[in-house]
Design a protein that fits this description.
Elements lengths: L3 E5 L11 H7 L2 H28 L2 H11 L4 H13 L3 H25 L11 E2 L14 H20 L7 H21 L5 H20 L1 H9 L8 H14 L15 H23 L4 H5 L3 H5 L3 H40 L7 E2 L28 H4 E2 L5 H26 L5 H14 L7 E5 L3 E2 L2 H26 L10
Helix pairs in contact: 1-2, 3-7, 4-5, 5-6, 5-8, 5-11, 6-7, 6-8, 10-11, 11-18, 14-18, 16-17
Protein backbone atom coordinates (compact mmCIF):
# COMPACT_ATOMS: atom_id res chain seq x y z
CA UNK A 1 0.00 0.00 0.00
CA UNK A 2 1.21 3.57 -0.65
CA UNK A 3 2.20 5.33 2.53
CA UNK A 4 -0.30 7.71 4.12
CA UNK A 5 0.73 11.23 5.00
CA UNK A 6 -1.52 13.10 7.41
CA UNK A 7 -1.31 16.88 7.45
CA UNK A 8 -3.43 19.75 8.72
CA UNK A 9 -5.25 21.85 6.17
CA UNK A 10 -7.32 25.02 6.18
CA UNK A 11 -11.10 24.83 6.12
CA UNK A 12 -11.38 25.95 2.49
CA UNK A 13 -9.29 23.09 1.03
CA UNK A 14 -10.63 19.62 0.21
CA UNK A 15 -13.93 20.54 1.79
CA UNK A 16 -15.39 17.15 1.03
CA UNK A 17 -13.32 15.65 3.82
CA UNK A 18 -14.86 17.87 6.48
CA UNK A 19 -18.59 17.47 6.33
CA UNK A 20 -21.37 16.21 4.09
CA UNK A 21 -22.67 19.77 3.73
CA UNK A 22 -19.37 20.75 2.15
CA UNK A 23 -19.82 18.04 -0.48
CA UNK A 24 -23.07 19.84 -1.24
CA UNK A 25 -21.13 23.08 -1.72
CA UNK A 26 -18.45 21.52 -3.92
CA UNK A 27 -20.79 19.54 -6.18
CA UNK A 28 -23.40 20.70 -8.65
CA UNK A 29 -26.82 20.82 -6.88
CA UNK A 30 -28.41 17.91 -8.72
CA UNK A 31 -25.20 15.89 -8.45
CA UNK A 32 -25.15 16.53 -4.69
CA UNK A 33 -28.83 15.58 -4.45
CA UNK A 34 -28.19 12.21 -6.08
CA UNK A 35 -25.33 11.63 -3.66
CA UNK A 36 -27.54 12.45 -0.64
CA UNK A 37 -30.11 9.92 -1.85
CA UNK A 38 -27.59 7.12 -2.32
CA UNK A 39 -25.27 7.73 0.64
CA UNK A 40 -27.63 6.43 3.39
CA UNK A 41 -27.97 3.13 1.50
CA UNK A 42 -24.20 2.63 1.48
CA UNK A 43 -23.79 3.52 5.15
CA UNK A 44 -26.74 1.38 6.20
CA UNK A 45 -25.15 -1.74 4.69
CA UNK A 46 -21.77 -1.39 6.44
CA UNK A 47 -22.62 -3.09 9.77
CA UNK A 48 -24.44 -5.91 7.97
CA UNK A 49 -21.42 -6.57 5.74
CA UNK A 50 -19.16 -6.62 8.81
CA UNK A 51 -21.49 -9.09 10.56
CA UNK A 52 -21.63 -11.22 7.39
CA UNK A 53 -17.82 -11.36 7.27
CA UNK A 54 -17.62 -12.41 10.91
CA UNK A 55 -19.96 -15.33 10.26
CA UNK A 56 -18.75 -16.74 6.94
CA UNK A 57 -15.04 -15.93 6.61
CA UNK A 58 -12.66 -18.90 6.56
CA UNK A 59 -8.99 -19.11 5.47
CA UNK A 60 -9.93 -21.20 2.43
CA UNK A 61 -12.64 -18.79 1.29
CA UNK A 62 -10.28 -15.85 1.88
CA UNK A 63 -7.77 -17.34 -0.56
CA UNK A 64 -10.45 -18.26 -3.10
CA UNK A 65 -12.14 -14.86 -3.26
CA UNK A 66 -8.83 -12.97 -3.13
CA UNK A 67 -7.62 -14.82 -6.21
CA UNK A 68 -10.92 -14.81 -8.12
CA UNK A 69 -11.07 -11.03 -7.59
CA UNK A 70 -8.09 -10.80 -9.96
CA UNK A 71 -10.29 -12.24 -12.73
CA UNK A 72 -12.26 -8.99 -12.75
CA UNK A 73 -9.26 -6.66 -12.85
CA UNK A 74 -7.21 -4.99 -15.54
CA UNK A 75 -4.42 -7.49 -14.80
CA UNK A 76 -6.45 -10.41 -16.10
CA UNK A 77 -8.02 -8.70 -19.08
CA UNK A 78 -4.86 -6.93 -20.27
CA UNK A 79 -3.16 -10.35 -20.46
CA UNK A 80 -6.14 -12.36 -21.71
CA UNK A 81 -7.56 -10.09 -24.43
CA UNK A 82 -4.45 -9.89 -26.69
CA UNK A 83 -4.41 -13.70 -26.85
CA UNK A 84 -7.69 -13.65 -28.78
CA UNK A 85 -5.99 -11.68 -31.55
CA UNK A 86 -2.89 -13.87 -31.57
CA UNK A 87 -4.79 -17.16 -31.73
CA UNK A 88 -7.48 -16.47 -34.32
CA UNK A 89 -10.45 -14.78 -32.60
CA UNK A 90 -10.02 -11.09 -33.49
CA UNK A 91 -13.74 -10.33 -33.89
CA UNK A 92 -14.50 -11.68 -30.43
CA UNK A 93 -11.46 -9.86 -29.08
CA UNK A 94 -12.59 -6.51 -30.51
CA UNK A 95 -16.04 -6.92 -29.03
CA UNK A 96 -14.73 -7.78 -25.58
CA UNK A 97 -12.25 -4.89 -25.63
CA UNK A 98 -15.07 -2.49 -26.55
CA UNK A 99 -17.37 -3.82 -23.83
CA UNK A 100 -14.55 -3.66 -21.28
CA UNK A 101 -13.38 -0.20 -22.32
CA UNK A 102 -16.78 1.39 -22.06
CA UNK A 103 -17.48 -0.53 -18.85
CA UNK A 104 -14.36 0.86 -17.21
CA UNK A 105 -15.06 4.34 -18.60
CA UNK A 106 -18.67 4.61 -17.51
CA UNK A 107 -18.21 2.92 -14.13
CA UNK A 108 -15.28 5.26 -13.42
CA UNK A 109 -17.27 8.24 -14.68
CA UNK A 110 -20.17 7.42 -12.35
CA UNK A 111 -17.80 6.80 -9.43
CA UNK A 112 -16.24 10.23 -9.80
CA UNK A 113 -19.65 11.76 -10.40
CA UNK A 114 -21.34 10.30 -7.32
CA UNK A 115 -18.36 10.36 -4.89
CA UNK A 116 -19.85 7.51 -2.86
CA UNK A 117 -17.57 5.70 -0.38
CA UNK A 118 -16.87 2.01 0.00
CA UNK A 119 -18.07 0.16 3.14
CA UNK A 120 -16.18 1.67 6.06
CA UNK A 121 -13.17 -0.12 7.57
CA UNK A 122 -13.42 -0.78 10.46
CA UNK A 123 -15.84 -2.46 11.13
CA UNK A 124 -15.47 -4.06 7.68
CA UNK A 125 -12.29 -5.97 6.76
CA UNK A 126 -11.03 -5.24 3.24
CA UNK A 127 -9.35 -8.14 1.47
CA UNK A 128 -7.47 -6.94 -1.60
CA UNK A 129 -4.18 -7.61 -3.38
CA UNK A 130 -4.26 -4.24 -5.12
CA UNK A 131 -2.54 -1.22 -3.63
CA UNK A 132 -4.83 1.30 -5.32
CA UNK A 133 -8.35 -0.13 -5.45
CA UNK A 134 -9.18 1.13 -1.94
CA UNK A 135 -8.45 4.67 -3.12
CA UNK A 136 -11.41 4.57 -5.51
CA UNK A 137 -15.02 5.41 -4.77
CA UNK A 138 -17.38 2.47 -4.47
CA UNK A 139 -20.47 2.99 -6.65
CA UNK A 140 -20.79 1.25 -9.05
CA UNK A 141 -18.53 -1.79 -8.78
CA UNK A 142 -16.15 -1.93 -11.77
CA UNK A 143 -15.36 -5.58 -10.97
CA UNK A 144 -19.06 -6.42 -11.28
CA UNK A 145 -19.40 -4.41 -14.48
CA UNK A 146 -16.40 -6.12 -16.08
CA UNK A 147 -17.14 -9.69 -15.03
CA UNK A 148 -20.89 -9.67 -15.71
CA UNK A 149 -20.67 -7.92 -19.09
CA UNK A 150 -17.89 -10.23 -20.28
CA UNK A 151 -19.66 -13.34 -18.96
CA UNK A 152 -22.96 -12.38 -20.62
CA UNK A 153 -21.26 -11.63 -23.93
CA UNK A 154 -19.29 -14.88 -23.95
CA UNK A 155 -22.42 -16.86 -23.00
CA UNK A 156 -24.30 -15.33 -25.92
CA UNK A 157 -21.33 -16.01 -28.21
CA UNK A 158 -21.18 -19.67 -27.15
CA UNK A 159 -24.91 -20.14 -27.68
CA UNK A 160 -24.62 -18.68 -31.18
CA UNK A 161 -21.38 -20.32 -32.32
CA UNK A 162 -21.14 -23.63 -30.44
CA UNK A 163 -23.52 -26.43 -31.40
CA UNK A 164 -25.77 -28.09 -28.85
CA UNK A 165 -23.95 -31.43 -29.14
CA UNK A 166 -20.52 -29.88 -28.59
CA UNK A 167 -19.07 -31.33 -25.34
CA UNK A 168 -17.55 -27.95 -24.43
CA UNK A 169 -20.79 -25.96 -24.64
CA UNK A 170 -22.31 -26.78 -21.23
CA UNK A 171 -19.00 -26.70 -19.29
CA UNK A 172 -18.25 -23.34 -20.89
CA UNK A 173 -21.57 -21.85 -19.80
CA UNK A 174 -21.18 -23.26 -16.28
CA UNK A 175 -17.62 -21.93 -16.01
CA UNK A 176 -18.73 -18.43 -17.04
CA UNK A 177 -21.57 -18.52 -14.49
CA UNK A 178 -19.22 -19.60 -11.69
CA UNK A 179 -16.74 -16.93 -12.79
CA UNK A 180 -19.26 -14.09 -12.66
CA UNK A 181 -20.81 -15.21 -9.36
CA UNK A 182 -17.39 -15.68 -7.74
CA UNK A 183 -16.17 -12.21 -8.70
CA UNK A 184 -19.41 -10.44 -7.77
CA UNK A 185 -20.05 -12.27 -4.50
CA UNK A 186 -16.38 -11.94 -3.65
CA UNK A 187 -16.63 -8.14 -3.70
CA UNK A 188 -19.04 -8.32 -0.76
CA UNK A 189 -17.13 -11.12 0.97
CA UNK A 190 -13.89 -9.12 0.69
CA UNK A 191 -15.58 -6.00 2.07
CA UNK A 192 -14.77 -3.96 -1.02
CA UNK A 193 -18.33 -3.17 -2.10
CA UNK A 194 -21.87 -2.91 -0.80
CA UNK A 195 -24.86 -4.63 -2.37
CA UNK A 196 -25.86 -1.25 -3.80
CA UNK A 197 -22.48 -1.04 -5.55
CA UNK A 198 -22.95 -4.54 -6.96
CA UNK A 199 -26.45 -3.83 -8.26
CA UNK A 200 -25.25 -0.64 -9.92
CA UNK A 201 -22.38 -2.48 -11.59
CA UNK A 202 -24.67 -5.30 -12.72
CA UNK A 203 -27.18 -2.88 -14.25
CA UNK A 204 -24.43 -1.06 -16.14
CA UNK A 205 -22.97 -4.41 -17.28
CA UNK A 206 -26.28 -5.55 -18.75
CA UNK A 207 -26.79 -2.28 -20.64
CA UNK A 208 -23.30 -2.51 -22.14
CA UNK A 209 -23.70 -6.19 -23.04
CA UNK A 210 -27.13 -5.68 -24.62
CA UNK A 211 -26.06 -2.66 -26.63
CA UNK A 212 -22.91 -4.22 -28.07
CA UNK A 213 -24.44 -7.64 -28.68
CA UNK A 214 -27.40 -6.06 -30.47
CA UNK A 215 -25.20 -3.92 -32.72
CA UNK A 216 -22.17 -6.20 -33.00
CA UNK A 217 -22.59 -6.72 -36.75
CA UNK A 218 -22.75 -2.98 -37.40
CA UNK A 219 -19.74 -2.45 -35.14
CA UNK A 220 -17.71 -5.06 -37.02
CA UNK A 221 -18.70 -3.61 -40.39
CA UNK A 222 -17.51 -0.16 -39.33
CA UNK A 223 -14.23 -1.49 -37.94
CA UNK A 224 -13.24 -3.78 -40.83
CA UNK A 225 -15.49 -2.69 -43.72
CA UNK A 226 -14.64 -0.60 -46.76
CA UNK A 227 -15.90 2.71 -45.34
CA UNK A 228 -13.70 5.21 -43.53
CA UNK A 229 -16.08 5.89 -40.64
CA UNK A 230 -13.80 4.10 -38.20
CA UNK A 231 -11.35 6.99 -38.34
CA UNK A 232 -13.96 9.18 -36.64
CA UNK A 233 -13.56 6.97 -33.57
CA UNK A 234 -10.22 8.58 -32.77
CA UNK A 235 -11.51 12.16 -32.22
CA UNK A 236 -14.64 10.78 -30.54
CA UNK A 237 -12.62 8.78 -28.03
CA UNK A 238 -10.35 11.75 -27.41
CA UNK A 239 -13.50 13.79 -26.83
CA UNK A 240 -14.65 11.29 -24.19
CA UNK A 241 -11.33 11.69 -22.39
CA UNK A 242 -11.54 15.47 -22.69
CA UNK A 243 -15.07 15.63 -21.33
CA UNK A 244 -14.07 13.71 -18.22
CA UNK A 245 -10.86 15.69 -17.78
CA UNK A 246 -11.30 19.32 -18.77
CA UNK A 247 -14.96 20.38 -18.52
CA UNK A 248 -14.56 21.88 -15.07
CA UNK A 249 -15.98 25.36 -15.55
CA UNK A 250 -19.49 23.99 -16.17
CA UNK A 251 -19.44 22.55 -12.64
CA UNK A 252 -21.00 19.32 -13.88
CA UNK A 253 -17.75 17.54 -14.61
CA UNK A 254 -17.17 14.38 -12.56
CA UNK A 255 -13.97 15.81 -11.10
CA UNK A 256 -13.73 13.86 -7.82
CA UNK A 257 -13.55 15.47 -4.39
CA UNK A 258 -10.80 13.13 -3.17
CA UNK A 259 -7.94 11.74 -5.24
CA UNK A 260 -9.49 8.78 -7.08
CA UNK A 261 -7.59 6.79 -9.76
CA UNK A 262 -10.75 5.88 -11.74
CA UNK A 263 -9.91 8.39 -14.47
CA UNK A 264 -6.51 6.78 -15.08
CA UNK A 265 -8.14 3.38 -15.61
CA UNK A 266 -10.58 4.93 -18.09
CA UNK A 267 -7.72 6.52 -20.02
CA UNK A 268 -5.89 3.19 -20.26
CA UNK A 269 -8.80 1.35 -21.89
CA UNK A 270 -9.89 4.22 -24.11
CA UNK A 271 -6.27 4.47 -25.22
CA UNK A 272 -6.37 0.79 -26.19
CA UNK A 273 -9.46 1.47 -28.31
CA UNK A 274 -7.81 4.50 -29.96
CA UNK A 275 -5.02 2.22 -31.15
CA UNK A 276 -7.01 -0.96 -31.71
CA UNK A 277 -9.86 0.28 -33.92
CA UNK A 278 -7.87 1.98 -36.72
CA UNK A 279 -5.21 -0.76 -36.54
CA UNK A 280 -7.94 -3.36 -37.08
CA UNK A 281 -9.13 -1.49 -40.18
CA UNK A 282 -5.58 -1.24 -41.55
CA UNK A 283 -4.92 -4.94 -40.98
CA UNK A 284 -8.24 -5.96 -42.53
CA UNK A 285 -7.28 -4.09 -45.71
CA UNK A 286 -3.70 -5.36 -45.85
CA UNK A 287 -2.23 -8.45 -47.48
CA UNK A 288 -2.09 -10.07 -44.04
CA UNK A 289 -5.81 -9.76 -43.39
CA UNK A 290 -6.52 -13.45 -43.95
CA UNK A 291 -3.69 -14.56 -41.69
CA UNK A 292 -4.44 -12.03 -38.98
CA UNK A 293 -8.23 -12.15 -39.01
CA UNK A 294 -9.27 -15.49 -40.41
CA UNK A 295 -9.80 -18.45 -38.09
CA UNK A 296 -7.77 -21.40 -39.31
CA UNK A 297 -9.25 -24.58 -37.86
CA UNK A 298 -6.06 -26.53 -38.37
CA UNK A 299 -4.19 -24.45 -35.82
CA UNK A 300 -6.76 -25.34 -33.17
CA UNK A 301 -7.14 -29.02 -34.01
CA UNK A 302 -3.46 -29.80 -34.62
CA UNK A 303 -1.70 -32.07 -32.16
CA UNK A 304 1.86 -32.46 -31.07
CA UNK A 305 4.39 -30.66 -28.96
CA UNK A 306 5.17 -28.16 -31.74
CA UNK A 307 1.80 -26.44 -31.36
CA UNK A 308 2.20 -26.12 -27.59
CA UNK A 309 5.76 -24.85 -27.92
CA UNK A 310 4.87 -22.29 -30.59
CA UNK A 311 1.91 -21.08 -28.52
CA UNK A 312 4.11 -20.53 -25.47
CA UNK A 313 6.73 -18.71 -27.54
CA UNK A 314 4.05 -16.48 -29.09
CA UNK A 315 2.71 -15.46 -25.68
CA UNK A 316 6.17 -14.75 -24.27
CA UNK A 317 7.28 -12.72 -27.29
CA UNK A 318 3.98 -10.85 -27.58
CA UNK A 319 3.83 -9.84 -23.91
CA UNK A 320 7.54 -8.91 -23.94
CA UNK A 321 6.99 -6.59 -26.92
CA UNK A 322 4.14 -4.84 -25.13
CA UNK A 323 6.24 -4.31 -21.99
CA UNK A 324 9.24 -3.04 -23.98
CA UNK A 325 6.97 -0.64 -25.87
CA UNK A 326 5.57 0.68 -22.60
CA UNK A 327 8.99 1.41 -21.12
CA UNK A 328 10.39 3.01 -24.27
CA UNK A 329 7.30 5.09 -25.02
CA UNK A 330 6.96 6.33 -21.46
CA UNK A 331 10.62 7.38 -21.42
CA UNK A 332 10.18 9.38 -24.63
CA UNK A 333 6.93 10.98 -23.42
CA UNK A 334 8.54 12.02 -20.14
CA UNK A 335 11.25 13.77 -22.17
CA UNK A 336 9.00 15.49 -24.74
CA UNK A 337 5.74 16.35 -22.97
CA UNK A 338 6.80 18.52 -19.96
CA UNK A 339 8.28 21.32 -22.15
CA UNK A 340 5.09 21.32 -24.24
CA UNK A 341 2.92 21.58 -21.12
CA UNK A 342 5.01 24.47 -19.83
CA UNK A 343 5.09 26.30 -23.17
CA UNK A 344 1.31 26.24 -23.61
CA UNK A 345 0.47 26.37 -19.87
CA UNK A 346 -1.81 23.36 -20.26
CA UNK A 347 -4.29 22.71 -17.42
CA UNK A 348 -4.07 19.83 -14.99
CA UNK A 349 -6.33 18.21 -12.42
CA UNK A 350 -6.18 19.35 -8.83
CA UNK A 351 -4.35 16.22 -7.64
CA UNK A 352 -1.62 16.39 -10.28
CA UNK A 353 1.78 18.08 -10.19
CA UNK A 354 1.93 20.82 -12.82
CA UNK A 355 4.81 20.91 -15.32
CA UNK A 356 5.83 24.38 -14.12
CA UNK A 357 6.73 22.95 -10.70
CA UNK A 358 9.34 20.42 -11.88
CA UNK A 359 12.28 20.62 -14.29
CA UNK A 360 12.28 17.22 -15.97
CA UNK A 361 11.26 13.60 -15.43
CA UNK A 362 14.44 11.93 -16.61
CA UNK A 363 14.97 10.44 -13.16
CA UNK A 364 11.33 9.45 -12.63
CA UNK A 365 10.81 5.80 -11.81
CA UNK A 366 9.53 3.78 -14.79
CA UNK A 367 8.52 0.26 -13.83
CA UNK A 368 8.62 -2.47 -16.48
CA UNK A 369 5.19 -3.69 -15.40
CA UNK A 370 2.27 -1.26 -15.97
CA UNK A 371 0.59 0.21 -12.92
CA UNK A 372 -2.66 -1.53 -13.85
CA UNK A 373 -0.79 -4.85 -13.66
CA UNK A 374 -0.08 -4.94 -9.94
CA UNK A 375 1.76 -8.26 -10.06
CA UNK A 376 3.56 -7.68 -6.77
CA UNK A 377 0.24 -7.94 -4.98
CA UNK A 378 -0.30 -11.43 -6.39
CA UNK A 379 2.51 -12.78 -4.22
CA UNK A 380 1.19 -11.30 -0.98
CA UNK A 381 -0.31 -13.48 1.73
CA UNK A 382 -3.91 -13.33 2.92
CA UNK A 383 -2.75 -11.66 6.12
CA UNK A 384 -0.95 -8.95 4.14
CA UNK A 385 -4.07 -8.49 2.01
CA UNK A 386 -6.38 -8.01 5.02
CA UNK A 387 -6.64 -4.25 5.53
CA UNK A 388 -8.44 -2.61 8.45
CA UNK A 389 -8.43 1.13 8.94
CA UNK A 390 -8.16 4.38 7.01
CA UNK A 391 -6.64 3.89 3.55
CA UNK A 392 -7.66 7.12 1.80
CA UNK A 393 -9.19 10.53 2.25
CA UNK A 394 -12.57 8.98 1.44
CA UNK A 395 -12.17 6.59 4.38
CA UNK A 396 -11.12 9.39 6.71
CA UNK A 397 -14.30 11.34 6.13
CA UNK A 398 -16.51 8.26 6.51
CA UNK A 399 -14.69 7.33 9.73
CA UNK A 400 -15.45 10.75 11.19
CA UNK A 401 -19.15 10.53 10.31
CA UNK A 402 -19.41 6.94 11.59
CA UNK A 403 -17.81 7.78 14.94
CA UNK A 404 -19.90 10.93 15.35
CA UNK A 405 -23.12 9.00 14.85
CA UNK A 406 -21.94 6.18 17.09
CA UNK A 407 -21.13 8.62 19.92
CA UNK A 408 -24.44 10.36 19.56
CA UNK A 409 -26.35 7.07 19.53
CA UNK A 410 -24.75 6.08 22.84
CA UNK A 411 -25.63 9.45 24.36
CA UNK A 412 -29.14 9.23 22.94
CA UNK A 413 -29.70 5.79 24.46
CA UNK A 414 -28.81 7.17 27.87
CA UNK A 415 -31.15 10.14 27.47
CA UNK A 416 -34.01 7.98 26.21
CA UNK A 417 -33.67 5.68 29.21
CA UNK A 418 -34.02 8.70 31.51
CA UNK A 419 -36.83 10.39 29.50
CA UNK A 420 -39.09 7.73 27.97
CA UNK A 421 -41.36 10.31 26.33
CA UNK A 422 -38.69 11.39 23.79
CA UNK A 423 -40.33 11.03 20.36
CA UNK A 424 -38.58 8.72 17.91
CA UNK A 425 -38.81 11.18 15.03
CA UNK A 426 -37.21 13.91 17.10
CA UNK A 427 -34.42 11.54 18.14
CA UNK A 428 -33.74 10.62 14.53
CA UNK A 429 -33.62 14.26 13.51
CA UNK A 430 -31.24 15.06 16.35
CA UNK A 431 -29.00 12.17 15.33
CA UNK A 432 -28.76 13.42 11.74
CA UNK A 433 -28.10 16.97 12.93
CA UNK A 434 -25.38 15.83 15.32
CA UNK A 435 -23.72 13.71 12.65
CA UNK A 436 -23.26 16.78 10.46
CA UNK A 437 -22.63 19.42 13.14
CA UNK A 438 -20.20 17.52 15.37
CA UNK A 439 -16.62 18.14 14.23
CA UNK A 440 -13.62 16.32 15.64
CA UNK A 441 -9.88 16.88 15.05
CA UNK A 442 -9.75 14.39 12.19
CA UNK A 443 -11.91 16.76 10.14
CA UNK A 444 -8.82 18.97 9.80
CA UNK A 445 -6.73 16.16 8.35
CA UNK A 446 -6.37 14.93 4.81
CA UNK A 447 -4.84 11.64 3.76
CA UNK A 448 -2.29 12.03 0.98
CA UNK A 449 -1.88 8.82 -0.98
CA UNK A 450 1.71 9.03 -2.21
CA UNK A 451 3.03 9.27 -4.82
CA UNK A 452 1.33 12.16 -6.61
CA UNK A 453 0.82 11.98 -10.37
CA UNK A 454 2.46 14.29 -12.87
CA UNK A 455 0.24 16.25 -15.23
CA UNK A 456 1.81 14.52 -18.25
CA UNK A 457 0.98 11.05 -16.90
CA UNK A 458 -2.53 11.01 -18.38
CA UNK A 459 -1.42 11.89 -21.92
CA UNK A 460 1.49 9.47 -21.53
CA UNK A 461 -0.90 6.65 -20.60
CA UNK A 462 -3.10 7.52 -23.57
CA UNK A 463 -0.16 7.26 -25.98
CA UNK A 464 1.27 4.13 -24.35
CA UNK A 465 -1.99 2.19 -24.37
CA UNK A 466 -2.94 3.34 -27.87
CA UNK A 467 0.35 1.81 -28.97
CA UNK A 468 -0.42 -1.37 -27.05
CA UNK A 469 -3.76 -1.67 -28.86
CA UNK A 470 -2.16 -1.16 -32.27
CA UNK A 471 0.70 -3.56 -31.58
CA UNK A 472 -1.57 -6.30 -30.23
CA UNK A 473 -3.91 -6.38 -33.24
CA UNK A 474 -1.64 -5.37 -36.12
CA UNK A 475 2.13 -5.48 -35.67
CA UNK A 476 2.45 -8.55 -33.46
CA UNK A 477 0.12 -10.86 -35.49
CA UNK A 478 1.99 -9.86 -38.66
CA UNK A 479 5.30 -10.55 -36.91
CA UNK A 480 4.07 -14.04 -35.99
CA UNK A 481 3.01 -14.70 -39.58
CA UNK A 482 6.31 -13.49 -41.07
CA UNK A 483 8.37 -15.58 -38.64
CA UNK A 484 6.35 -18.76 -39.23
CA UNK A 485 4.36 -18.64 -35.98
CA UNK A 486 1.04 -17.70 -37.56
CA UNK A 487 -2.24 -19.55 -37.21
CA UNK A 488 -1.08 -22.32 -39.56
CA UNK A 489 2.08 -22.98 -37.56
CA UNK A 490 2.37 -26.50 -36.18
CA UNK A 491 -0.29 -28.05 -38.39
CA UNK A 492 0.15 -31.75 -39.07
Amino acid sequence: MPKKVFKTISDDIDAGLHDDRLYDKALHPWRAKLRRIMLPLIRMETPYIAAFQNKVRTPMLDVYFLWTANLGTHTFFMIFLPLLFWFGYPQLGRSLVAVMAFGVFWSGFIKDFMCLPRPLSPPVHRLTMSSSVALEYGFPSTHSTNSISVALFLMAWIQENVSLDDPFRLPGLITLSVYAVSVVFGRIYCGMHSITDILGGAALAYVLYWFHWTFRAQFEEIVTGDSYWIWLSIPLLFLMVGIQRFVIDLNISPDPIERCPCFEDSVCFLGVLIGLLPASWVTAHSSYSQAAFGIVSGSRTATGSSVILISIVKVVIGVAILFIWRMACKTVCYFILPPIYRAFNLPHRKFEIGARTYKNLRHASIHPVPSVLDLRGLTSSVRASDHVGVQSGIDLHEKRVYEARHRFQNNLDEKVSNTPSTPTLVATALQEKNATDDYDPSSLLIVEDSPLRYDVDIVTKLIVYAGIGALAVHAIPILFEVTGMGLDAGRQ
